[in-house]
Design a protein that fits this description.
Layout (H helix, E strand, L loop, with lengths): L11 E2 L9 E2 L2 H13 L1 E10 L9 E9 L2 E5 L8 H6 L4 E4 L2 H10 L6 E4 H7 L7 H9 L2 E2 L15 H12 L1 H14 L3 H11 L23 H21 L3 H4 L2 H8 L20 H15 L22 H22 L3 H4 L2 H8 L7 H10 L4 H20 L1
Parallel strand pairs: 1-8, 2-5, 3-6, 6-7
Antiparallel strand pairs: 3-4, 4-5
Length: about 400
């Protein structure tokens, strides 16, 4: 589905229809908001603003809700950390969110979990929209333009400036109308049942928890030795401890590229870290901290060094690389063909990682065996029905050659 207009040609929505409400930041104001939400009707639009890249973790610093009969409500979750009463008021209501996997974890931290949801971003992807950011989807469905100039600001700031609150209120102003249009389009295109399976699946969403989160450092591939990996792990752990204590994003303490630069330094004393090329902020406490982390890693016996292979990695392939490649050369296009028929992005039709893992198995088997493999990995029934047969056929063809 493609757009027939440029963003600039659309009328700009610059203020909520019924104004920007006062922020809810006291128990009394929360009790009133809860009464309004409980008395409201229909679906509720929900959004959260975080301070990713600024504060430690991914907690919400503002939560926006809008429901017919209740209007728009802006809650400060720093002042009101327990929002289980809001959750109770919304029992049974469908929540409409955009890119729900970004917001569900920080809402759950505050005691808010939906019973049913509609994700406008995922719906747009399933409808094959060219762009699926909130502003693009609003433009495509309602033919108005949302201003997006405050999306990366520091939402932990207090008090929040009035223009930021306007922006935040606008994020939920139109979500219900957008979801109604998208739902109608899903029905028209025969995708409503597929989407419902996706939305139901998202109710159990939790972010990945990594056994070795330090291996997520960008640039890790350049570190070849196990001793070098131990240095990365030690620096990462020291950085994370400081970041948590200061409530700052780890990148505010030491960027990944600077961490990797330190791994290659031969520093006998903390002062040898005084001028590491390209690494800023090397005051005395930082030099002591990073030098200790490096020294601790260097002192580890061989047996305690990390493996080259991550504990979080997929199990290694059971067949040789050429066999995996031959299978993937036929299996990937088979999924892409299904995606073209369904008019959806191929990664929505099936997670590429599932295809790669399947290709590495000793025996792939028939359609039933592939269906069981995909179900075990959490693929939805519609995905299994669409892809199990073509994947089994493609693998069989590759194995015949």
């Amino acid at each position: 589905m493609s757009s027939h207009h440029t963003d600039e040609s659309l009328p700009l929505l610059s203020a909520p229809a019924d104004g920007v409400p006062d922020i809810v930041d006291t128990p009394d104001a929360l009790a009133a908001a809860v009464r309004d939400l409980a008395a409201g009707t229909g679906a509720v639009a929900v959004d959260a603003e975080r301070a990713s890249g600024i504060r430690y973790g991914g907690r919400a610093f503002l939560i926006q809700l809008r429901r017919a009969g209740a209007g728009t409500i802006l809650i400060d979750p720093e002042a009101l950390p327990d929002l289980s009463t809001v959750d109770d008021a919304l029992r049974g209501a469908e929540w409409v969110l955009h890119a729900s996997t970004q917001d569900l974890p920080c809402l759950a931290e505050r005691g808010m979990r939906p019973d049913a949801l509609f994700d406008t971003e995922l719906a747009a992807r399933m409808l094959d929209f060219e762009r699926f950011g909130l502003a693009a989807v609003v433009g495509e469905t309602l033919v108005v333009r949302l201003a997006k100039e405050h999306s990366n600001v520091d939402w932990s700031r207090r008090p929040l400036p009035p223009d930021w609150l306007t922006y935040a209120a606008l994020d939920v102003e139109l979500l219900i109308e957008v979801s109604d249009i998208l739902q109608a389009q899903l029905q028209e295109t025969g995708k409503a049942e597929f989407a419902q399976q996706e939305f139901d699946h998202l109710l159990d969403f939790t972010p990945n928890v990594y056994a070795e989160p330090w291996r997520r450092v960008q640039g890790l591939g350049s570190v070849k030795s196990r001793r070098g990996l131990a240095r990365v792990r030690s620096l990462w752990t020291a950085r994370d401890r400081v970041a948590a204590a200061q409530d700052l994003a780890p990148s505010q303490i030491l960027r990944d590229r600077h961490l990797i630069a330190l791994v290659g330094i031969d520093a006998r004393t903390p002062d040898d870290l005084r001028r590491v090329p390209g690494v800023p902020g090397m005051d005395r406490s930082a030099r002591l901290r990073w030098h200790k982390a490096l020294s601790d890693a260097d002192a580890l016996p061989e047996a305690e060094l990390p493996d080259r292979r991550s504990a979080d990695a997929e199990a290694p392939a059971e067949v040789d690389r050429n066999r995996v490649k031959a299978r993937l050369d036929l299996m990937k296009p088979a999924v892409q063909e299904v995606a073209r028929d369904l008019q959806m992005p191929h990664e929505v039709v099936l997670t590429p990682r599932h295809v790669k893992t399947l290709a590495g198995r000793r025996t792939i088997g028939d359609e039933q065996a592939v269906a069981a493999f995909l179900a075990e990995r959490g693929a939805r029934p519609w995905q299994i029905e669409a892809t199990a047969g073509v994947l089994a056929a493609a693998a069989a063809e590759a194995d015949r050659d």
